[in-house]
Design a protein that fits this description.
Order of helices and strands: HHEHEHEHEEEHEHHHHHHHEEH
Structural class: alpha/beta
Number of strands: 9
Helix content: 40-55%
CATH class of the domain at 33-179: Alpha Beta
Bound molecules: adenine
CATH topology of the domain at 33-179: Rossmann fold
Number of helices: 14
Strand order of the largest sheet: 2-3-6-1-7
Distance between the termini: 55 Å
Radius of gyration: 23 Å
Strand content: 5-15%
Largest sheet: 5 strands, parallel
């Protein structure tokens, strides 16, 4: 029996149930990320052979690519509990102390969004990761004492969308770091086929292709759009996701054939129309688009860069000629600076 999550993120009930249903339960159901799976396979088999917990693992990469799923599969492979929490949920040193002292030998502690852990909490994590000790300072001033508690052997699996924000002492305490990349289009299509089978919804060949192309090479997006197409087919059709159902659902959601949402297009249009194609600094872009700089960096930019629509330069963000073409805006004769 696995323990319940410590700080489960609050989510819509229908989506939570469906996400769990669609989440791969075994490694051979996990499509894509072959390079990561191969390396993990050796790491896990070696640790199992020595009857030791796996070394601490850092998983990085854009949101929705399966970092949490991977942590659960590692737990399953090692036959251990996975305790789930996140950087922002661990507000105080006491929160982390309580999580760590409740771990059982061999447990996996999964910390999502580790880059959002506060500095004081992070410093308590160092000796816990390195020497399995919890060092807590009690009292203040000259009478302050350090209390040292021995922790059971455990594995920390941390996930981040922003590996560059991790301090080097934290980064250096992971035995392995893996980067998850956007999925190949045919892997996304396989994931959609698997999910449609699980949901018991019929789909045309053309509809698979339309959905795959608009999924931002991201399984979470693919599964979410699949559910919206299933709703549309149920309400406006006979339940089957046809090419027309797929296209009409995307049009209703204002998602274009490349998977760009309104905000993606707005970001590109602002760079092109207000800043002559760039370069424009992140904070200026955030102010002009009424969007948080963090969201631009974590949610929108990675995909726009993957499509080759946006480049980050030392002087700011620049829209590429492909972005102009996609927006249907004429490329000015003075090409934007790409340095
Ligand atoms: N659902 C979400 N991610 C998946 C993956 N990588 N493989 C199969 N199904 C998935």
């Amino acid at each position: 029996m696995s323990n319940p999550p410590i700080h489960a993120p609050v989510k819509e009930k229908e989506d939570t149930v469906l996400d769990l249903t669609l989440r791969p339960q075994k490694w051979d159901e996990y499509i894509g990320q072959e390079h990561v799976k191969k390396n993990l396979n050796i790491l896990l088999r070696a640790a199992k052979g020595r009857n030791e917990p796996v070394e601490h693992i850092l998983l990085s990469g854009p949101a929705g690519l399966g970092k949490t799923t991977m942590a659960h599969l590692i737990g399953r492979e090692m036959n251990t509990n996975v305790r789930v929490t996140s950087g922002p949920a661990i507000e105080r040193v006491g929160d982390l102390a309580s999580i760590l002292t409740n771990l059982l030998a061999g447990d996996i502690l999964f910390i999502d969004e580790i880059h959002r852990l506060n500095k004081l909490v992070e410093e308590v994590l160092y000796p816990a990761m390195e020497a399995r000790t919890l060092d807590i300072i009690i009292g203040k001033g000259p009478s302050a004492r350090t209390l040292q508690i021995e922790l059971p052997p455990f594995t920390l699996i941390a996930a981040t969308t922003r590996p560059g924000l991790l301090s080097s002492p934290l980064r250096s305490r992971f035995g392995m770091t893996f980067r998850l990349d956007f999925y190949a289009l045919d892997d996304i299509q396989k994931i959609i086929m698997r999910s449609a089978r699980i949901l018991g919804v019929g789909m045309d060949e053309d509809a698979y292709a339309i959905l795959a192309r608009s999924s931002r090479f991201t399984p979470r997006v693919a599964n979410r759009l699949l559910k919206r197409m299933r709703d549309y087919a149920q309400v406006h059709g006979n339940g089957k996701i046809t090419k027309d159902v797929a296209a009409s659902t995307l049009a209703l959601l204002e998602i274009d054939e490349k998977g760009l949402e309104q905000m993606d297009r707005r970001i590109l249009e602002i760079i092109v129309q207000k800043f002559g194609g760039g370069p424009v600094g992140l904070q200026t872009l955030a102010a002009a688009s009424f969007e948080e700089g963090d969201s631009i960096e974590e949610v929108y930019e990675p995909y726009l860069m993957q499509l080759g629509f946006l480049e980050r330069t030392s002087r700011g963000r620049v829209a590429t000629p492909q972005a102009y073409r996609h927006l249907g805006i004429k490329i000015p004769s003075q090409a934007p600076l790409l340095s």
